[in-house]
Amino acid sequence: xxxxxxxxxxxxxxxxxxxxxxxxxxxxxxxxxxxxxxxxxxxxxxxxxxxxxxxxxxxxxxxxxxxxxxxxxxxxxxxxxxxxxxxxxxxxxxxxxxxxxxxxxxxxxxxxxxxxxxxxxxxxxxxxxxxxxxxxxxxxxxxxxxxxxxxxxxxxxxxxxxxxxxxxxxxxxxxxxxxxxxxxxxxxxxxxxxxxxxxxxxxxxxxxxxxxxxxxxxxxxxxxxxxxxxxxxxxxxxxxxxxxxxxxxxxxxxx
Length: 255
Ligand SMILES: NC(=O)c1ccc[n+]([C@@H]2O[C@H](COP(=O)([O-])OP(=O)(O)OC[C@H]3O[C@@H](n4cnc5c(N)ncnc54)[C@H](OP(=O)(O)O)[C@@H]3O)[C@@H](O)[C@H]2O)c1
Hints:
- About 50% of the residues lie in helices and about 15% in strands.
- The chain is α/β, with parallel strands linked by helices.
- The strands form two sheets. It has a five-stranded mixed sheet. Strands 1-2 form a two-stranded parallel ribbon.
- It is elongated, with a radius of gyration of 21 Å.
- The protein binds NADP nicotinamide-adenine-dinucleotide phosphate (NAP).
- NADP nicotinamide-adenine-dinucleotide phosphate (NAP) binds next to helix 4.
- NADP nicotinamide-adenine-dinucleotide phosphate binds near residues 22, 56 and 63.
């Protein structure tokens, strides 16, 4: 849904250019109200499609592929998969080796056009890659990576949103403990995190360079920062990212 809404808010296409399927049509009533075509029949839905986006959970993939297989048109259609942990070989085994496919790993910031998306094309034409890059560029930024980096991209990019959100929540909880009302603490923490990210992106600097600018000798920032490191801040993030990457790699199991 975030992908479809991102496409529209970015002006990449109109709602009535998109057919969204789910197994329960009632779950799509809000999308239908927004002008999207909705259906439960995957084969029928892709009949006239140029591109087929597969956005199911890993454990739902086999069923979706078996529904799409009789209808897929390999000459015409490009497949874009956001399914975590499902290697493109899984799709090629079902649809055949002529399949043109791009694996995409976006994050939910697509909704506000600030996603980071990693793309791995396999057997896709230059035109396909440009099209998919254009689509995801309108919803943030994207880079091309080798498919063997997809699990790492899942951890850093898709799971990454949750990691940073949790750090913002923790900062705002700290803010409440030192005297702010919860809504003010959250606003201050969110905007400060946004500003930190923007400094790195705008200045193309390393985080430590920006940290040096705000840590005066014997000051309060370095004291707080060092205490966080004594408590394992960087180590906890690194270990969490490694664990997520390992789990992402094993999420899809063929039935
Ligand atoms: N959320 C993220 O930030 C994010 C980022 C990158 C990648 N991903 C990956 O993207 C995939 C989707 O994630 P999600 O968070 O959107 O999961 P989700 O909310 O559970 O969405 C899965 C959707 O697939 C539908 N579905 C399942 N089987 C179907 C079928 N045979 N035909 C049509 N629709 C079917 C489900 O609807 P019904 O149950 O009504 O059929 C549901 O709407 C996952 O593989 C996830 O790992 C997610």
